[in-house]
Every structure is written in structure tokens, then in C-alpha cells.
Amino acid sequence: MLEIVANDKDCSARTGTLHLPRGDVEIPTFLPVGTNGTVKAIQHSTLRHIGYSLILSNTYHLYLRPGVQVIEKYGGLHNFSSWNGSILTDSGGFQVFSLASFRKIARDGVAFTSHIDGSRHFLTPESVVDIQVALGSDIQMQLDVCTAPGIEADEAREAVELTALWAKRAKQRYLEHSASSRGYLFGIVQGNFFKELRVLSSSLLSELDLPGYAIGGLSVGEKPEVFKEFLGYTAPLLPRDKPRYIMGIGTPEYMLESIEEGIDFFDCAYPTRVARNGTCFTRFGMINVKNSQFKDDVRPIDTECICPACAHYSRGYLRHLFVAKEILGPMLLTHHNLQFLFTMMEEARGAIRNGTFLGFKTAFLERFGTVDK
User: Cα-atom radius of gyration of the chain, to the nearest Å?
Assistant: First the structure.
């Protein structure tokens, strides 16, 4: 599944290829988030045109609406959504623990109330595997126990141990499905902000010899220095011969920090969410085109970007679209932000191959911190 072609000489950054059932994916890479089977405000064909070949969808949301039975009638999520690339599906564990109005965790699984209509549901590690197989996931995530920052160590330990138990059960069910239909199952390392529990979680999951591993429970509101500390501590605990994934990372600073520590891919709804509110990435930092200072600005968002928003429109016109509440504005900025990140990943991969990633990272972030207003 994982082929590494180059390692940076000065850090843990690496580049290569994920060989997935529906095509290869160059790493490191960012995954656009299509929670409900669509990346908001952009067509799947446009994502492919940019160069994306792996996106994320969410088991919890698709299970509730439109329902697995509907998607199965189309032969899986790829056909249902007309996406011919690869799909990673999050297990829904985070959504159960953050969106459901009622939830009760037991050794067997988790009971919860739908945030959509109040209906009651019960998910198990096994049923989550079955759902993701029915969706046709190329990479599926185990059901895990998410914990909030600030909890006591005993509660965090219980979550680590239950997550490991659920991973073992998920693997057993996963192996019952035919190899041609099940994609790859990833385990999720938890442990909250306790280093000894990060070690325990990594050890318990590594014993299962799963196809890949993810780091969960970071970028949940902690300070950047804490994120960096626990990322740097956790990443080396994961098997080097398996893909490494960190969940919920969506800014250039955190992405480049993750790449330096040997992470292969990451996802977040942040780049597309802020685009719909007028905020976009530039080489000099973030700007919001709705600000009045851009009313008469004839410049493109970023002179180095090749997206349609930058190639054809001014900041002033884009501001007009948002002020007038025209849907084209969010569409153009969504395209721009995803193009910006795709280009950044291409440049990062090139720097790793040249053994110059740390220099690239430093120069990129120094420039990114000088907003060109």
C-alpha cells in the first residue's frame, strides 16, 4: 500500500505513493472534506482537474442521511456521488461524541440520538466496518472513543483501552469481508494529552498490524506549542512502514509541521468552510475579501495562483460577489483555497525529494506570516 521514494535528510519528512484500489495518491497530501458525499461549493470534476485523487466523507452523516441502503443501490458512494477517485471515510466517532444530543458508551458500542431527527441508533465496531464496506471506502477508519481536552488521566486511559478493543473487533470483522471489497482499515491513536497514554495507545494498536494508522485527539483547541509537542512525540511511535494520517489539520502551519514529523496525509473542513465566508489563503497569509479595504482592489487574490479566481477576477469583484450574496463567490474561493493547498503539497513533495524540506518550510511560513494587505 505504501511506497516511500524519498526521505528528507534533515527531518522525518517523506514522500512517495499510496497505492489504493482506485488509483495512486502522491504523499504527503491534503484531503478535501466531503462530509455528505460532496465537497461543498465545488464539483468533483473540478477537484480532479486540480489534481486531487483522495477525498474524505463521513460514515455518521451518510449513515443517517441518505442511509446506507440508498447508497448500496447505486453500488457504493463512488457511483452515488460520481467521484472516480479514492475515498477515505471517517468512522463517525468524533461526530457521535460532538453532535449527538445523547450518547452512551459501553463496551459493545455507542448509543446515540441523531442530531437530524432525534432518532435512536446504536453503532458497534463491527457495524461501522460493515457500513464502510457498503459505502465502498478505499480507506476506512475504526470506531474510536474521542475525549475532550482537560479530562483526568483515568478517563483518558479507559478511552485508550476501549479504542484498542474496538480496533481489534473491527479488524476481525474487516477480515471477514472479501479483500476486493473492504479497502484498508486504519487504527486511531488516542491518549488525550498524556504522553504515557499516547505510548500505550500506539503500542496496543501496533500489535494489531493494521494497514495504516491515524493520530486522533490533536488540533482540538490546544495551544500551537502543545500541538507541536504531542505531534512530535506521537508520530515516531507509529510504524514507519505504514501510512500515517493525522485527523483534522487544515492550516499551512500545522500541515507543514506534520509533514516534518513524517505524516503522510491530513484532512480538515477549515479551508473550504472559511472560503464560504470570504477568507482565503495567499502566499502572504490569510485575507478576507469581504473587508471594505478590497472594494477597489484590482489585484487578484494571489498573483502566483493558477485557479480561475486568480486568473480572471479581482479582489474587488470577489468582494462584490460576497456583498451581493452571489453563490459564485464561495465557489471561486473554495476552488482557490483547494488549489493553493494542492500547490503547496506539490512544492513540499519536491522539497523532500531535493532534501530541502526544512528550508522550504521556513521560507514558506516566514512569507505566509507577512500578510500583503
Answer: 20
* pLDDT-based confidence at residue 373 (cuts at 50, 70, 90): very low
Residue 149: closest CA among 114, 107, 98, 115: 98
Q: pLDDT at position 92, please?
A: 87
For residue 320, give the C-alpha cell.
462584490
Structural domain for 321, as ranges: 275-368
CA distance 164 to 146: 12
User: Of 232, 253, 268, which marks where a domain is finished?
Assistant: 268
Catalytic position from the list 8, 90, 138, 264 = 90
Among this protein's residues, is 296 annotated catalytic?
Answer: no
Q: Is residue 78 within 8 Å of 34, Cβ to Cβ?
A: no
- Do 44 and 173 have their domain in common? yes
Cα separation, 302 vs 283, whole angstroms: 7
Q: What pLDDT score does 109 carry?
A: 95
Identify whether residues 260 and 322 lie together within a single domain: no
Task: Give the Cα separation of 128 and 139 in Å (integer).
Answer: 13
Phi, psi (deg, nearest 5) at residue 4 = -95, 125
Beta-carbon count within 10 A of 276 CB = 17
Q: Which residues contact 22 (CB under 8 A, 6 or more apart)?
A: 78, 84, 85, 86, 138
The vertex-78 CA angle with 343 and 341, nearest 5°, equals 10
Q: Using DSSP bridges, classify how beta strands 120-123 and 110-113 pair: parallel, antiparallel or unpaired.
A: antiparallel
Q: Which of 330, 317, 321, 326 shows the shortest CA–CA distance to 274?
A: 330
8, 144, 267, 297: the catalytic one is: 267
Q: What angle do CA 243, 249, 250 make, to 5 degrees?
A: 125
Are 227 and 246 contacting, i.e. CB atoms less than 8 angstroms apart? no
Q: What is the pLDDT of residues 266-320, one digit of tens each?
A: 999 999 999 999 999 999 999 999 999 999 999 999 999 999 999 999 999 999 9
267 is catalytic: yes
CA–CA separation, 74 and 70 (whole Å) = 7
